[in-house]
Amino acid sequence: MSSSDRLLLILHIGFAIFTLGPLTAATMSTPRYIRRRDVAIVKYLNRTTMIYAFGSLGVFLFGLFLAKGQFARFWLSASMTLFVVGIALLFLVERDQRKAIRLLEVAAAAQGAATVQGAGAGAAVPEAGRGPDGETATGPEPEAEAQGGKKDVKAGTAPADGDVAAVERGRIAAFSGVIALIWLVILVMMVWH
C-alpha cells in the first residue's frame, strides 16, 4: 500500500469516525427532545444533523478514491449503495426535524397565548350586565354556554397538553435506527473483506 493510499485510508476512517458517530447521536436523540418540547435543543440537533450529513460525504468521496475504480467487488458496490440510501434517509430525518421545530414553535406560541388569556381572566370584571365601556353587554353565546363556556380550539393548533409532532418524532426514531443499522452493515462489510 502506497503512502497516498494510506493517507486516503486515514482520511476515510477519520471522516467515518468523526462524522458518522456524532451524526447518529444527533439523529437518535432528537425524538427525546421533541417529546420534552425543547425547541432550542431540537434546533441545535437539526443544525448538527445538517453539518455532519454534509461532512459524511467525505467518507464517501475518500472511499471512492480509495477504491480506484474496482467497483465490481460486491462488498464495495453494496457499501456504496447502502451509503447513498443512508444519506437519502438523513435528508428525510432533517426534513422531519424542521417540521417538528415548526410544530413545537406553534405549540409554544399557542400555550403562551393561552397563558396570557388565563392571566387576563383575573382582571377587573365590570358590573353585571354591563360591558367594559358601560353599555349593556349581551351574555355569552348559547352554544358556548351549553358547552360550559369552552370555545373550540382553532384548527391547526395543538392542545397545550397534547402530543406535539408525534408523527415526526416516530419517523425520526425509525429512520435513525435504520441509518445506524446501515452504518453497522457497511462497517462489517469493510472490515470483513
From TrEMBL:
- Could you list the residue ranges that cross the membrane? 6-28, 49-67, 73-93, 172-192
> Where is the segment annotated Disordered?
123-157
Question: At the top level of its lineage, which domain of life is listed?
Answer: Bacteria
User: What ranges does the record list as Low complexity composition bias?
Assistant: 123-147
Q: Which UniProt keywords apply?
A: Membrane, Transmembrane, Transmembrane helix
Query: Any keyword Nucleotide-binding?
Result: no
Q: Does the keyword Glycoprotein apply?
A: no
Give the protein name, as stated in the record: DUF2269 family protein
Q: What organism does this protein naturally occur in?
A: Actinomadura logoneensis
